[in-house]
Amino acid sequence: MPSKQAVAMNDNEEVALREQLARLQQEHRDLDAAIEALMTSPGSDLIQVQRLKKRKLVLRDKIRQVEDQLTPDIIA
């Protein structure tokens, strides 16, 4: 019976990771749109654009970490 609990916990963890992944991906897309809008507007704040780009890179790394957790290791 403990194995069923472990499976349910893993399923819950997977659901939580997939939800986190979706949030991170949405934030990444939102940042992309914000960067594009700032870069096309006259008199844009280049420092703000750089900050957003840095944040976008951090998000990309977090997205990859979550994707790695969701992808099982396959030993060939």
Question: Would you give an account of this structure?
Answer:
With 76 residues, this protein is mainly α. It has one domain. It is built from two helices and no strands. It has helices spanning 2-40, 46-70. α1 (2-40) packs antiparallel against α2. The longest helix has 39 residues, at 2-40. The two termini are 32 Å apart.
Q: How would you summarize this macromolecular structure in one to three sentences?
A:
The protein has 76 residues and is mostly helical.
List the helices and strands and how they pair.
Layout: H1 2-40, H2 46-70
Features:
76 residues, mainly alpha, 0% strand
* Class derived from helix and strand content: mainly alpha
Low-pLDDT runs? 1-9
**Mean pLDDT, all residues:** 86
Oligomer: single chain
Q: What's the order of the H and E elements?
A: HH
Approximate strand percentage: under 5%
Distance between the termini: 32 Å
Radius of gyration: 18 Å
Task: Assign a percent range to the helix content.
Answer: over 70%
The tally of structural domains comes to 1
Overall outline: elongated
Count of DSSP strands: 0
User: Number of helical segments?
Assistant: 2
Main pleated-sheet profile: none
